[in-house]
Amino acid sequence: MPGDAASTRRRILDAATAEFAAFGIAGARVDRIAAASGANKAMIYKYFGNKDQLFDAVFDTIVVQTMDDVPITGDDLPGYAARMWDWHRRRPELLRVAHWDRLERDAAGMTADVVRKATADKTEAIATAQRHGLVDDALQAATLLTMILELSRTGLDAPGTHRAAIETAVRRLTTPQSS
């Protein structure tokens, strides 16, 4: 039953996301993921392999979900940064998974094909906006992307005024300077 398999995989990924966010890779337990997802451990191993491969699947899913939920628009980078900030506030467990990747795996997840493609797509959106004169080109597109993403992760426990401050900062960073 393809529908049942897809539903089971989704439940496992959701439970694994929560488990990895709370405990990291080393502290996560497959038996807790199985219990939370209503699947058995054998099914988890069948679908995802070992615990590290399950973490990879969670990480990849987060990247794809982020790209789908918060698409970048090169002509509105301040708005993109603000939407990313909103997204991180709504889904803090996803940012925690990324932190665990950095802490326990030296950011191995950041080298995955899905991450490289997402980064390339975002960088190209910025570079295109720079070529069209919509975004200042004093910084390389990749550097600008890194700065925007880092700003979007700040002050997540701050009031909504921080969101506006991020928009202002990105606007100042990206507005083309007149000669």
UniProtKB/TrEMBL annotation:
Database matches in InterPro entries:
Homeodomain-like_sf, HTH-type_TetR-like_transc_reg, HTH_TetR, Sco4008_C, Tet_transcr_reg_TetR-rel_C_sf
Q: Which PROSITE patterns match?
A: HTH_TETR_2
Q: Which residues bind DNA?
A: 29-48
Q: Fetch the Pfam families from UniProt.
A: TetR_C_21, TetR_N
Q: Which Gene3D superfamilies match?
A: Tetracycline Repressor, domain 2
| Keywords associated with the record | DNA-binding
**Top-rank taxon:** Bacteria
Residues of the HTH tetR-type domain: 6-66
- PANTHER family with a match to the protein in the record: HTH-TYPE TRANSCRIPTIONAL REPRESSOR SCO4008, TRANSCRIPTIONAL REPRESSOR
Protein's name in the database: AcrR family transcriptional regulator
